[in-house]
Amino acid sequence: MAKAKLEYIWLDGYKPVQSLRSKTKIVSDFSGKLEDCELWSFDGSSTEQAPGGSSDCQLKPVFICEDSERSKLGTPSYLVMCEVNNADGSAHVSNGRATIDDDDSDFWFGFEQEYFLYDVDTNLPLGFPANGYPRPQGPYYCSVGARNAYGREIVEEHLEQCLANGLNVEGINAEVAAGQWEFQIFAKGAQAAGDQVWVARFLLERIGEKYGVYVNWHCKPLGDTDWNGSGMHANFSNTALRSAGSKDVYDKICSAFAPDSVIKECIAAYGPDNHMRLTGKHETQSIDKFSYGVSDRGASIRIPLGAVQKGWKGWLEDRRPNSAADPYKVASVIIKTVKSAS
């Protein structure tokens, strides 16, 4: 019987940042369909998700795509994103995907995932000398050339694998700091968007293994310096925003994010150490304030000029989520807040 390799991927229970975990399941005569991926289990005591005396956690497959690179070795291979459930089938406390209230997939999300590529030997971003700093920010954003763009071979390979596997990557670019890059993923449905971001992160981490490079997802890995931090801006819309036709609708939805209690709830979901990044500098609003405005990249939420030009029909961009945030949890709190405005 023909064999296939299924790479089951999940998020562990570590805090404040969950990490990706995976293991391979060999199956026979696999159809390639999600519904034919069986439940599986793992040792939750090794991932901060269960005690040793009752260690089994369940993996519930929720998204599947081809693993084109691994298939080149000869055996058909797939990537299977999973939710983590308790032994009784209920959602594990670490399962952010299960908190998303978007059953009809009315919410569309586009995540702008920034990250740094770090050399495992120097523990510094690519392009940084062993001692000191490269030239100041300025020449690196959307750059070309060996003095400005570092790690392009990794980024290009990542893009190619994402596209070959069917992930909806809509673009890539070098970012403001040396060794910093970004990819953008869009999906109709909050859970689908989160699934694809996590699988794309998995692929980037795996590609880095063969180059001796790791991905630093921290929002401000260079600390209190004049180097930009990393975000994961969340572009979102629902039917109300896509068909609004009125500034009033946008004002009402944006204003739902303004109360102090909502600011705190959002920040709690938008990634750890965001106080280091949301300082009011480097195109950010301060972490304890809320603002919104048309084309304002220093606001908490930017109203894109394109939405205004279309007659107030389109989307919003929450600029506060950081690069290490869980897209499932980000989407969950955004959906909750937008629905409170209806």
Which terms summarize this structure?
342 residues, alpha+beta, Ubiquitin-like (UB roll), Creatine Kinase, Chain A, domain 2, 2 domains, nine-stranded mixed sheet, five-stranded mixed sheet, globular
CATH uppermost class of the largest domain: Alpha Beta
Helix content: 10-25%
Gross geometry: globular
CATH fold annotation of the largest domain:
Creatine Kinase, Chain A, domain 2
Architecture of the largest domain, according to CATH? 2-Layer Sandwich
Number of strands: 14
Q: Name the helix and strand elements from N-terminus to C-terminus, one letter apiece.
A: EEEEHEEEHEEHEEHHHEEHEH
| Number of H/I helices | 8
Distance between the termini: 54 Å
Structural class: alpha+beta
- Count of discrete structural domains: 2
Query: Low-confidence stretches at least 5 residues in length (pLDDT < 50)?
Result: none
Mean pLDDT: 97
Largest sheet: 9 strands, mixed
The proportion of residues in beta strands is 25-35%
Cα Rg = 20 Å
CATH superfamily of the largest domain: Glutamine synthetase/guanido kinase, catalytic domain
